[in-house]
């Protein structure tokens, strides 16, 4: 009798533990509100878990960064601005936190504004001009309006409470375009110097043409209701 009672108690304990573990791995349907941050920017995120396999997730992300770089004989000051939003469908591996996600983001507000100037004196024919005399070349670099995105990720699953997630993948925003170019000084008016302007414009286009895919790495923290 004692042996059977002991076996029964152990069995009940194991069943209780397995059910508790299953509940941790099988989150309830419902809404999670949180914050995401990474290469897409930082901003609010919301997801709706329809069942243990499917979920919808949306976010809006923002970020700004200044950067200086040299292209050919020109030095450029650039300011990156990320302002994008979108949604993905999450497909979860049952009883795990592993997920594959596909969707799209509105990216027409992602841009780089830049101003470039010669890094030193240059001679055109018999005339030598300082960078200030040559003038500046400014404009912006923009991507297409809507960009597809695909990631693989993991989220800590629980019925309610804090959740943590990570997603890595890529967003295809197409070949960036150099737009709204404006020249000042001799770059704008002198035919001899304008040849250098056309050369720099082409260098800029060649420089950004290869960046058709944008890497995605996002971390998130939220609260599941």
| CATH first level | Mainly Beta
Question: What is the topology, as strand order, of the major beta sheet?
Answer: 1-2-3-4-5-10-11-13
Known CATH architecture: Beta Barrel
Q: How many structural domains?
A: 1
- Rounded to the nearest angstrom, the radius of gyration is 27 Å
Overall SS class = alpha+beta
- What is the general shape? elongated
Instruction: State the order of secondary-structure elements, H for helix, E for strand.
Output: HEEEEEEEEHEEEEHHE
How would you characterize the overall build of this protein?
The chain has 225 residues and is α+β, with helices and mostly antiparallel strands. The chain has a single domain (28-224), classed as Porin (Beta Barrel). Helix content is 23%, strand content 56%. It has an 8-stranded antiparallel beta barrel. A two-stranded antiparallel sheet has the order 7-8. The longest helix has 24 residues, at 2-25. It starts with a helix and ends with a strand. The model is unreliable at 1-26 (pLDDT under 50).
Write a compact overview of the structure shown.
The protein is α+β, with helices and mostly antiparallel strands.
List the helices and strands and how they pair.
Elements lengths: L1 H24 L4 E9 L2 E9 L4 E18 L2 E19 L5 E9 L4 E8 L3 E3 L2 E3 L1 H4 L1 E7 L3 E10 L5 E12 L4 E7 L2 H4 L1 H19 L3 E12 L1
Antiparallel strand pairs: 1-2, 1-13, 2-3, 3-4, 4-5, 4-6, 5-10, 6-9, 7-8, 9-12, 10-11, 11-13
């Amino acid at each position: 009798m004692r042996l059977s009672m002991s076996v029964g108690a152990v069995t009940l304990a194991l069943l209780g533990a397995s059910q508790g573990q299953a509940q941790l791995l099988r989150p309830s349907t419902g809404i999670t509100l949180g914050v995401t941050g990474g290469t897409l920017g930082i901003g609010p995120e919301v997801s709706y878990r329809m069942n243990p396999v499917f979920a919808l997730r949306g976010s809006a992300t923002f970020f700004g960064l200044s950067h200086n770089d040299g292209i050919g004989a020109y030095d450029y000051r650039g300011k990156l601005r990320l302002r994008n939003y979108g949604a993905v469908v999450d497909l979860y591996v049952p009883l795990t936190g592993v997920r594959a996600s596909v969707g799209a983001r509105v990216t027409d507000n992602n841009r780089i504004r830049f101003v470039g100037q010669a890094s030193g004196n240059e001679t055109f024919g018999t005339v030598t001009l300082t960078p200030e005399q040559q003038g500046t070349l400014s404009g912006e670099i923009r991507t297409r309006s809507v960009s597809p995105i695909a990631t693989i990720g993991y989220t800590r699953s629980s019925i309610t409470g804090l959740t943590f997630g990570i997603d890595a993948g890529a967003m295809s925003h197409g070949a960036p375009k150099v737009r709204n170019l404006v020249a000042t000084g001799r770059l704008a008016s002198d035919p001899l110097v304008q040849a250098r302007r056309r050369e720099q414009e082409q260098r800029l286009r060649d420089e950004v043409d290869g960046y058709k895919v944008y890497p995605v790495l996002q971390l998130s923290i939220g609260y599941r209701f």
